[in-house]
Amino acid sequence: MNGAASGRASASRGASRAKGRALTEGQRAERRLGLWLCAPAAIIMVVVTGWPIVYSVLLSLQRYDLRFPEDKAWIGLSNYATVLSSEVWWNAFWVTLLITVVSVAIELVLGMLLAFAMYRAIVGRGLIRTVVLIPYGIVTVAAAYGWKYAWTPGTGWLAGLLPGGSAPLTERGPAIAIIILAEVWKTTPFMALLLMAGLAVVPEELLRAASVDGASLWQRFTRVTLPLMKPAILVALLFRTLDAFRIFDNIYVLTNGSQGTGSVSISAYHNLIGGLNLGIGSTMSVLILVTVAIIAVVFILGFGTAAPGSER
Amino acid sequence: MAEIVLDHITKRYADGTVAVDDFDVRIADHEFVILVGPSGCGKSTTLNMIAGLEDITEGELRVDGRRMNEKAPRDRDMAMVFQSYALYPHMTVRENIAFPLKLAKMGREETQERVERAAGLLDLAPYLDRKPAALSGGQRQRVAMGRAIVRDPKAFLMDEPLSNLDAKLRVQMRTSISRLQKSLGTTTVYVTHDQTEAMTLGDRIVIMRAGLIQQIGPPQELYDHPRNLFVAGFIGSPSMNVVPARLEEGLLRTPIGDIPLRGRLGRAAEGPDVPRDVIAGIRPESFEDASLVHDAEEGGTFTGTVDLLESMGPEKLAYFTLDTGAVRSEHLSEAGGEEAGEECRLVAQLDPKSGARRGQPVRLWYDTQAVHLFHPKTGENLTER
């Protein structure tokens, strides 16, 4: 038994070694062609994303302020110490986190409702799908200006609904709420699209089986549809969380980060472009990259247990 | 356990298509009823109406005398087994089987006990903690059965539960379903397109075609006394042979010889509105190698050259081509028999001792009293009216 098993194992190892060595001429040509076909994309990626990332890491390790170019020097990690002990950075970080969590949560619920509406609608399905997708088709900056004017006292139709003299975009709480509103309005359709794709993979027969088994509409949703949609939900959440954490354009237009409403991206921008402090700005960018990477890793670890039907 | 009454039930869709037309059957408590027919005949729609997955347009569905038309599926207390098994992929076998009990808010201990009992009945005990993806087709099918029996429902509804299995497993599961139903005694409605399943499983068979019931009865009755050409062609494998025939004075002229019109054939020929040109049907087992028949009184003989010979073990199937055109009838094309060619073919089921050889002529005897006559237009069985 044991001998047979190990014999089989060594045989298969031998086979795979033989396979690795004995590539035929045709296989080698195919492999070469594959590399050539990948090369342009790989080179472009290295040039336009790989190098800038490396360059900003290098900048983050230097004292480099364009106002004092002669002070440029390698200072190790002290930029990181500066940023991580700065109240401004942490304020921006928590604001970003708040916007991310609240907007993604609202988008998930609304997106699910819209996905159901788009998927289940019997009459006017085309119309519903078109209407739902309109916000997604509008340029974010243009939409952000729309929201900005709408909330500006005197001219805006939404500001007009508020009690006289209130200027919501100049107060921290209301401004953040408006930023979240603009973000939700803009990206819920994207969420709904991803979730609709997930809905489509739930077999109709399972829902019928569940209803015969005694499940109510809500039980069918929570016990059959949701578990089967889990991978789609995680993908949607991953995309949206990564996106939301890097929020920039809505804030840039609506408040430009005043009254403590700036996100980490806004902070990085202000230091890098406004303040011309390449060292500190790059440090912030690298920290954003690290945070986004952590979020992605957490989600991807979640995927492993998510696939329905996977053994354990 | 329940009596299910389908009282003149009709299903009409919004576009006017009638899927089921005036379906009227009373299914007794403990009974095993098969709905059989070619695809699109309305058998699954009927089952879905019983389950509550589709609305009933007209008529009334009663279970134990109570009207069910407006009840949601979950309030009907019926269990359904689907062709795809419809197992929940994110749950283990145990959770799948326990799902209906969990929804019914049954206590933990009783749930546990019932799941174990169902699993024991279906030999699923070793797989209780696996996910459906890790099971074979036959095991999945048994889990679907387990989920149905665990609740002890009023009725089992089965929608082609065996059609995704390979042939051998299908036969195996067929007997175990039959045994299970007999021991539980639960009223069962079973949908299939396979006439063998219908013949072997059911107490009664309901044959459907294009939304209409063709005939209802026990398997043997449907086999021996088909009411029309469709039923005759659908039930039985190999299918009944059909040949063109002509009624003349005291004789039925067929490509396999002239048959005197006596007994039931005589009575059939004397009936009202009987055209002169009819369709004659005779089952393959009504033939025998003439050399093996000693008492060949009530019978005709026919000599033909064997095109093809299939040795099945307990019998031999001999195929012949008759020098006449094939019978064309809308009643046959849907019955799912052999694809009708240009020529009229005949199959005879012979004793394995028969000396028939391929390419050689053989003299066959056939039982003339086993011949059925059908109306060429309406398909009605003239010998059974």
UniProtKB/TrEMBL annotation, chain B:
Keyword Glycoprotein among record annotations: no
Family annotation (Pfam families): ABC_tran, OB_MalK
CDD domains membership: ABC_MalK_N
Occurrences of domain ABC transporter (ranges): 4-235
UniProt entry keywords in alphabetical sequence: ATP-binding, Cell membrane, Membrane, Nucleotide-binding, Translocase, Transport
PANTHER family in alphabetical order: MALTODEXTRIN IMPORT ATP-BINDING PROTEIN MSMX, TREHALOSE IMPORT ATP-BINDING PROTEIN SUGC
Protein name stated in the entry: sn-glycerol-3-phosphate ABC transporter ATP-binding protein UgpC
Organism, scientific name: Nonomuraea montanisoli
